[in-house]
Amino acid sequence: MSATLLAVALSLVSAVAYAAAAVAQERLAARTAGAGAGVWRLLGTGSWWWSVSLNASAALLHVAALKFGPLTLVQPLGALTLVAAVPLGARLAGRRVTAGEWRGTALTLAGLAALLVTATGPAPDDTLALPEALAVAGATAALIGFLARRGARPGLRHATASGLASGVASALTQTVTVAATDRSGPLLDARVIVVALLVAAFAAGGLLLSQTAYRGGLGAPLAMVTLANPVAAALIGLSLLGERLQGGIAGLALALAGAVLAARGVVLLTRSAVPTAPGPVPTGPEPDGALAAVVPLPVRAEPEPVVLRAS
User: Fold this and answer.
1) Among residues 64, 144, 225, 296, which one has the fewest Cβ atoms lying within 10 Å of its Cβ?
2) Cβ atoms within 10 A of the Cβ of 309, count?
3) What is the DSSP letter of 214?
């Protein structure tokens, strides 16, 4: 098998793993909707760690794909997560994918493809200096805090914040990888350690934010996460890593058209959202009492007494 085919295969498996993780998070979120602080208790359940394991496996497969294929090939294939997650979520919910969901998915993917086509990959040695990394982290944290502020309704705000966190984590990962493999300097200097800690913080934050976002459904939040992730990374590349849009004015027009198409797709997915019925409530005891705190058990109605009357 050639390196390109191996990269494509790894990317496809990674996309399916990301999709399965998103569906698992969304179904867990459906059970914790309106639970308030009880959501945090459920983060210790098996369903939560199953989704975390799937996300970690998908990330490792994505990194492995980048070893065998170029970024311009691997990154667009990551958008197939949306294609896999929408029908998978519908199937597990016992329904069919609506026509609006298919149209929204297609428009979002078309817009994302247009954005990715106009972007160039970063030069191999382009990295963020420590002050630049700290500035990016601070500005992103402030924006995430604004989007996911207390009282904000779970949905596209949290999904956007999750995509931004994941995109910044990806951009910072590139800096850590290049700096750590640079043989001209020490393996672990201050920049590598600090940026690696920032990567861990943003990756974990993105995962928690997506968990909250999926309480508003799967299709539209996942589309926003899928869109915001590469857009955030591209903004960092254009502003700090010397990247440029391909095609000049035509490339800029294509990027704007792609943004409009993707936005329209997200809107369609939002309008076509179908509430996901929560999974069956476990009948066994819950050691930590988490489900008892957030999911009321069904109450059986007592039968009315039968009164016999003398004729």
Assistant:
1) 296
2) 4
3) G
Exposure on the CB side of residue 125, measured as CA atoms within 13 A: 3
- What is the phi/psi pair of residue 257, to 5°? -65, -40
For the chain, what's the residue count? 311
CA 205-32-224 angle, to 5 degrees, is: 45
| Tens digits of residue pLDDT in 213-248 | 888 778 788 888 888 887 887 788 778 877 677 777
- Does the pTM exceed 0.85? no
Say if residues 188 and 180 touch (Cβ distance below 8 Å): yes
Cβ 270 vs Cβ 156: under 8 Å: yes
* Other residues' Cβ atoms within 10 Å of the Cβ of residue 240: 18
- Single-letter code of the amino acid located at 281: V
216 secondary structure, DSSP code: G
**Token couple for 201:** 């913080």
